Amino acid sequence: MEDTVKLIFEGKTYELPIVTGSEGEKAIDISNLRPMTGLITLDPGYANTGSCTSSITFMDGEKGILRYRGIPVEQLAEHSSFLETVYLLINGRLPTKAELNNMSVLFNDNSLVHEDMQIFYQNFPRASHPMGILSSMVNALRSFYPELQTLEEEINITVTRLLSKVRTMAAMSYKISRGHKVVYPRPDLKYCANFLNMMFDTPVKPYRIDEDLVRALDVFWILHADHEQNCSTSAVRLVGSGRVNLYAAISAGIAALWGPLHGGANQAVIEMLSDIQKDGGNYRRAIERAKDKKDPFRLMGFGHRVYKAYDPRARIMKKMCDKVLFKLKINDPLLDIAKELEEAALKDDYFTEYNLYPNIDFYSGIVLRAMGIPTNMFTVMFAIGRLPGWIAQWKESLDDPKWKLGRPRQIYIGPTQTDYIPIDQR
Ligand code: CMC
Predict the structure, then answer these.
(1) pLDDT of the residue at 83
(2) Hey, which of 43, 272, 302, 313 would you mutate to test ligand 1's pocket, going by the most ligand atoms within 8 Å of its Cβ?
(3) HSE on the CB side for 423, CA within 13 Å?
(4) Could you tell me if 133 and 192 lie in one domain?
(5) I want to staple 341 with a disulfide (CB 3.0 to 4.6 A). Which of 114, 216, 283, 387 is the partner?
(6) Known catalytic residue: 361?
(7) In the predicted model, what is the mean pLDDT of the chain?
(8) Of all protein residues, whose CA lies closest to atom 17 belonging to ligand 1?
C-alpha cells in the first residue's frame, strides 16, 4: 500500500507522507510542504485540515459514530455518569471506585467561589447574556486563584477548580440575574443534583431533588462532553498554544461556543420553534425559507460540519426529551412542532441532498426548558458539559511533542506595494 502521495509542482515531484489513524483515517502530512516547495495550502473553515493527532474522541460523520476514548457515547449515556466521563476524557481511562470517589470529594472541596466574585456578578447590567458573563468570570478566576508553583500542581488543581466552580458560577449568575440570594453548594449532593439545587432552591420553596431529572442532566452533560476539533475546542487549543493559563484558554472556548452556528444553536432552536408557534405552527414556511438561497434563514438544530448522517447524540436526546416531558407531565407544544418539522425536513429533497439531519441542539433545548432552565442559560449548560473536553484537549496539546504555536498562514489578495499619499494631496 502507498504510504506517500506525490505532488507535482513546476515540473518537480515531491513525496508527502500519509498519516493513518487507529480507525483507518488518512491524512497527507504537509508539515514540510512550505520548506520543500514554497507552497502553503488554502482551506477556508479548515474543512479538510487536521490540526493535530488526538487520542481523545473519534467521530465518523458518515456513519454517525461518536466515541470518547474508544467507548461509544451510547454506552456512556446508558451506564456512565458525567463525573466518570470527565475522568475518562481527562485521564484517558475509566476510573476505579476509589478514584471516582476521590474526584467527587475534590470537587466538593473546590466548589465554593471566592465571595468577592459576587460583586462582579452584581455589577453586570441586568440584560447581559450569561455566556458573556461566564466567559469573563472564568477568565477572572486567574486573578483570584493565581499561578501555582509547579506545572503538575497547576494542571491538577486548576482543572479540579474549574470543573467544580463552573457549575457554582453558572447557578450563581442565574440567581443574581433574578435578584435572588445565591445558594451555596452542598457537600452531601453529587455534581448534577448540586447544580440543580443551586439553581432552583429558594428559602420559600426548598428544591426537591428528582432522581430522574438528575439522571437526565447527567446524560445531557455526557452527550456534550467532547466533540473533537470543533470551533470552541480549536479556539481553546489555539489560544492555549500561546501558553496562556488554562482559565484564559477556556474563557476563549466559552466565547467561541456562544455563536448560534455552534453551541448557541440550542437557544436559537427554541427561538425558531417559538417563532413557528407564533406563526400558527406553520413549520412548512420555515422549511421553505431554509431552502431559499436568497434568505439567510437556516433551520437551526439541523446540519453539521462532520455528521452527514443522524447525529448519534440527537437520537439519545430525542428519546430523553420524550422521557423527561412524560415524567414531568409536561405537554410542550414546541416538541410537537419540532417533531413535525423534523419529519417534514427529512422527507424533503433539499435536506436529504445536503445531508442535513437534526443535531444535538435540535431537541436539547426542549429538555432544558422542561427542567426549568431559562432559554438564555442553554448555551451555559452546553459549556459546563463541554468543559472536560476542552480541558482534555488542552492537556493533550501540552504533552504533544509536535505541538507548535498555532499560526495559520494566508494568501494575501490586497493591493501590491502602494506609495503613501500625504493627506493634503488626497
Ligand atoms: N438549513 C438550511 N441549509 C443549510 C443548513 C441548515 N441548517 N445547514 C447547512 N445548509 C446548507 C447551506 O446553505 C449550504 O448550502 P450551499 O452549499 O447551497 O450554499 C450547505 O448546506 C453547506 O453549508 P455550510 O454552512 O457550508 O456547511 P457547514 O459544514 O459549515 O455547516 C453548520 C455546518 C452547523 C454551520 C450548518 O449546518 C448550520 O448553520 N446549521 C444550523 C446551526 C446549527 O444547528 N448549529 C449547531 C451545530 S451542532 C452543535 C455543535 O457541535 O456546534
Answers:
(1) 96
(2) 302
(3) 0
(4) yes
(5) 283
(6) yes
(7) 94
(8) 354
Residues 310 and 289 in one domain: yes
Q: Are residues 143 and 193 in the same domain?
A: yes
Q: Is the distance from the beta carbon of residue 389 to the nearest atom of ligand 1 less than 6 Å?
A: no
For residue 151, is pLDDT > 80?
A: no
Percent pLDDT > 90 in the chain is 88
201, 218, 226, 361: the catalytic one is: 361
Same-domain check for residues 224 and 110? yes
User: Among residues 117, 162, 99, 126, which one has the least CA distance to residue 387?
Assistant: 162
Task: Name the closest-CA residue to atom 32, ligand 1.
Answer: 304
Scan for cell 449532593, then name that residue: 189
Q: Does the pLDDT at position 1 exceed 60?
A: no
Ligand 1 centre distance from Cα of residue 292 (Å): 14
- Residues spanned by the domain of 52: 4-65
Does the CB atom of residue 330 touch ligand 1 within 6 A? no
Closest CA to 52 of 240, 221, 224, 222: 240
Strand order in the sheet with 65-68: 57-60, 65-68, 71-72
pTM, to two decimals:
0.94
pLDDT (0 to 100) of residue 152: 77
From the CA of 315, how far away is ligand 1's center (Å)?
19
Per-residue pLDDT at 317: 94
Tens of pLDDT along 70-119? 999 999 999 999 999 999 999 999 999 999 999 999 999 999 999 898 88
Domains contained in the chain, number: 3
The CATH number linked to 273 is 1.10.230.10
Q: Are residues 17 and 108 in the same domain?
A: no
Nearest CA to ligand 1 atom 20: 354
Domain boundary among 44, 65, 86: 65
Report the Cα 212 to chain-centroid distance in Å: 24
Whether residues 366 and 393 share a domain: the answer is no
Q: Is 304 a catalytic residue?
A: yes
Residue of 218, 224, 304, 311 with catalytic role: 304
Measured between alpha carbons, how far is 214 from 208 in angstroms, rounded to an integer? Answer: 11
Say whether 17 sits in a helix, a strand or coil.
strand
**Do 128 and 221 fall within a single domain?**
yes
Q: Of the candidates 352, 387, 400, 91, which has an alpha carbon nearest to the alpha carbon of residue 241? A: 400
